[in-house]
Every structure is written in C-alpha cells, then in structure tokens.
Amino acid sequence: MNFILRCLVTAVAVAAAVWLVPGIEVAPTTETWACVAVLALFLSLLDISLKPILQVLSLPVSVLTLGIFYLVVNTFVLYVASWMANGLFDIGFEISSFGSAFVASIVISIVSSIVGGITGAKD
Fold first, then answer.
1. Is the separation of the CB atoms in 70 and 47 below 8 Å?
2. Pfam families from the xrefs (predicted)?
3. How many angstroms separate the CA atoms of 104 and 112, rounded?
4. What's the CA angle centered on 106, arms 36 and 30, to 5 degrees?
5. Sign of CA dihedral 94, 89, 4, 8
6. In degrees rounded to 5, what are phi and psi of residue 29?
C-alpha cells in the first residue's frame, strides 16, 4: 500500500514538473496522464533500487559539495526513468536539456516532499 501511495505522490510531482518546467514536455500524440503515470512508476522503482546505490557511490563528492551533488543524482535518475519509459512504452516524455532536467528534479523533490508529508507516504 505504501508503494502505491508513493507512486501517486510521485505522479503528482511529475505532473507539476511537466506543468511548471519549460523544457519538460509530453508529446501531443499521447495522453498526459498516462505518460505521467508510467514515468512516475519508473521513477518510484528507480528511487527504491538505483538511487540509494548512486547516493552511496557519490558520497565523497556529496560531502565536498555539502549535499548539493544529490541534485545531480536526482537529475540522472530522472533521465534514466525517462529513457526507460520511452524505450519500453514509447510514451513521448521529452527532456530538452540538462538544465530543464535539473530544475525538474528540484520541482519533483519539493512537490513530492510536500505532498508526501501531507499524505504520510514518506513514513
């Protein structure tokens, strides 16, 4: 049940990033809600499996940058989720540049923290 709630929180955060960040687009031929749902599923799965490994591997750099490098890890995970979702389901989620992905990862982190705190998904 917690994973489903976490996926819903991530879907809300991804929808906010698609709406707010100019370089994050959904192809007009696909349904936006389906694209957001598939990407949120992949992003949640990668947050559980790949992100902790990347955080441990990047620990020395993160200590030197006082934790700011974790934003780069989040951006990389967003790129991987987009690549997987587009490769497996051809959903049409497009990231135009690294800057757009970086801002989108910040928006996704903030929105998921707020919504997760309200719903209790991060407990």
1. no
2. Phage_holin_4_2
3. 12
4. 20
5. positive
6. -80, -10
State the amino acid at position 24 in one-letter form. I
* 81 burial via Cβ count (<10 Å: 0-12, 13-18, 19+): buried
Q: What pLDDT digit, counting tens, does each position of 80-121 carry?
A: 999 998 888 888 888 999 999 999 999 999 999 999 889 876
Tally the C-alpha atoms within 13 A of residue 114's C-alpha that lie toward its C-beta: 8
60's tokens: 């020395």
pLDDT in tens, 1-10: 788 898 999 9
3-state secondary structure the chain: CHHHHHHHHHHHHHHHHHHHCCCEEECCCCCHHHHHHHHHHHHHHHHHHHHHHHHHHCHHHHHHCCCCHHHHHHHHHHHHHHHHHHHHHCCCEEECCHHHHHHHHHHHHHHHHHHHHHHCCCC
